[in-house]
Each structure stands twice: as C-alpha cells, then as structure tokens.
Amino acid sequence: MSYVLNTLTNLLDQTAFMNLTVGNYVMIAVACVFLYLAIKHGFEPLLLVPIAFGMLLVNIYPDIMAEPYVDAAGIEHAGGLLHYFYLMDEWSILPSLIFMGVGAMTDFGPLIANPISFLLGAAAQLGIYVAYFLAIALGFNGKAAAAISIIGGADGPTSIFLAGKLGQTALMGPIAVAAYSYMSLVPIIQPPIMKLLTTKEEREIKMQQLRPVSKLEKILFPIIITIVVCMLLPSTAPLVGMLMLGNLFRESGVVKQLTETASNAMMYIVVILLGTSVGATTSAEAFLNMNTIKIVILGLVAFAFGTAGGVLLGKLMCKLSGGKINPLIGSAGVSAVPMAARVSQKVGAEADPTNFLLMHAMGPNVAGVIGTAVAAGTFMAIFGV
Fold it and tell me: Percentage of the chain with pLDDT > 90?
C-alpha cells in the first residue's frame, strides 16, 4: 500500500498543478483571452494564435524554454524546444525572413506611383520618438528606451530585431508581445483617433486613380532603395535588404518558385516559429512586473502618436493640395501591413460607401515599413551597434 501511495504522490508532484504560481494562472488566463480574440473575433489569428499558445505552454511547462546546461556529473542536457526557436529571434534570423516574405507579398506600385507617400510614412514614425523620450523619463536606459519605442511603428519583427541588436533580450518578450498585440488591434485602436482628428468632409474626399507603374520601375525600385538606404544606414541591411529581395523576387517575374516559397510556405513556417517563441518569453516571472506595464502603456502611447502624426500630416497635405488628399491615408503610415491600409479604407467607406482608399493607403503603409526599419537603423547607429 505504501508503494502505491508513494507512486501516486510522486505522480501528483510531477503535475503542473503542484508547481504553478498565481502568476502562471494569470498568464494562462491572458493566453486564453488572446486565443478567444483571435479565433472568435478574427483579430489577426496568424499572429495571435501561435503567440497565445506559446504563452500557454511556457506557463504550464516552463522548461520548454530552458537553456541547455551541464550537470555536476558533466553530462550535457539539451534545452527546451522553444528555446531553440527563440535563439533564431535573438540572432535576427526570423525577423529578417519575415521581411522577405512581406516583400514578396507586397505591391510597391502605390508607393512608386505616389512618392509623397514617403512623407506620410515618415510622419507616422512620430510615435517612435515620442515613446523614446517618455521611456527615458520613466527610468529606462537609452538602449532599452530605443527598443521599446519601435513598438510605435506597429512592426513586430523590427521590434524583435532591434531589441536583440541592442542587447535588450530581457525586455524582448514584453516588447514583442506588445508590438504584435497592437498590430492585431489596429482595427480597434486607430479608428477613434482618425475620426477625432478629421472632419466628415475630409473623410469623404475621393482621391484620383493612381497612375500605372511600369514593370521597369517596379524592378528598379527595390534595387535603388537597397542601395540608398543601406549605404546611409548599413545596419538596416538585414531588414531592408530582405524586404527588397522578396519584392525583387515578385517583380522580376523570373523566379516564380522563389516568390511563391517566400510568400507562402516559408512565411507561414517562420510565423509559427516566431509566434510561439515570442509567446514563450511571457513566463509569469518575466512578464508580470512593473517594467512590462510601462512597456505596454508606452507602446499604446507610441502607436496613438504614430497614427496621429500620419493623419495630421495628411490634413496638411489635404490643405496644400486643395482637398485632393484624404487625410485618412496618413494613418496607414504605421507599418502594420496591410491591416492599417484596410482600416483607412474602412473608415473612409463609413463616411462614403463609394470611397475607395485602399490602394492610396498602401503607399504610406509600405513607406511605414521602410521608415520603421530606418528608425531602427538610426538607433543602432546612435548606439554604435
């Protein structure tokens, strides 16, 4: 009988119920909320489902993120499964591959047809610099503040990339989760800001059809952007270079297999690895602290200011152009592709169902991706990385 009791006791001790803290249960609840939002309401499920499931796994079985170690007897033990996924985040492999996939899926034609979109994309980076100074005011050091501020660009891969380059791996989990969460919540966060800063008449403005863009222009664009941006900020080469390589695959027309692989199979594999590893950084011990709360708040402030910066410049352009530019497209200057452009279309259509802003908004949206990468490169240059 004692043998049976000891066996049952040992089995009970090995269950997660005996080892979880209150914080672990809180994070499990948060993971379930994320899964609900992704599955029931469709809030960017490609991002939220793997992130939430990684969050669930690490708070039930923390060793899934354990680092490899050598015990007292000199025996080597492997790390947890998601630890090896996470190393590819730290080494900037997965964020760079994500950018290649985005480039292969994205038509840069609207940006080429309307180069003024670069200004709107730049204006939407306002949130990054506002968050940077606020983070310093809240007690973060310069590198940590820079890593946090990139959340304002609504660009998860760039946030992970910069946090790794600046050595802020301790903050990478909260930064990545905040960035991806705000990317997913673009349809909720942006519309109130857009409506607050614009009049109904401005939202009803119909823009002229964009000019056709030649195949030669589309081929030259990624090559020229790579040369110009990477010559000015060489540290942006992993992101900008992969983004433009993916787009060159798409536009060259001679590597259909590479385009399909980069935009489909590879992209989805990388999203699985990136999402689960990002979610797995949110153990209760690492996530439930005051710094995380500050990061989440700073990210929201940054995202709001980024949206406002794009819309306000859009309003100025509207005035200068004699009412030819709808200010709503400025909100797409944050680099959440293509969600932010869709939101511009949605809000414009609410004012006038016959209004079609999607292609016009894609210009600032693509410019925002480049702008966020340039902002990250600027911070790396400042800190000598």
Answer: 69
Instruction: Summarize pLDDT for 143-168 with one digit per residue, the tens.
Output: 999 999 998 887 888 988 999 899 88
Please, which pLDDT band fits residue 187 given cuts at 50, 70 and 90?
confident
Q: How many helices (H) and strands (E) does the chain have?
A: 21, 2
Q: Say whether pTM exceeds 0.70.
A: yes
Give the Cα separation of 134 and 305 in Å (integer): 12
DSSP string, 240-280: IIHHHHHHHHHHHSS-HHHHHIIIIIHHHHHHHHHHHHHHT
Residue whose C-alpha is closest to residue 154's, from 315, 310, 316: 310
Cα–Cα dist 363/308, whole Å: 17
Expressed in percent and rounded to 5, the helix, strand and coil fractions of the chain are 75, 0, 20
Q: In this structure, what are the phi and psi dihedrals at residue 211, rounded to the nearest 5 degrees?
A: -70, 155
Amino acid (one-letter) located at 156? G
Q: Is 199 left (phi over 0), alpha (psi -120 to 50) or beta?
A: beta
pLDDT of 285 reads: 85
Task: Summarize pLDDT for 217-248 with one digit per residue, the tens.
Answer: 999 999 999 999 999 999 999 999 999 999 99
How would you class 81 by CB atoms within 10 Å of its CB: exposed for 0-12, middle for 13-18, buried for 19 or more?
A: middle
Q: What DSSP assignment string belongs to 206-242?
A: PPPPPPP--HHHHHHHHHHHHHHHHHH-GGGIIIIIH
Tokens 């992130």 label which residue?
51
Residue 164's Cβ-side half-sphere holds a number of Cα atoms within 13 Å equal to 21
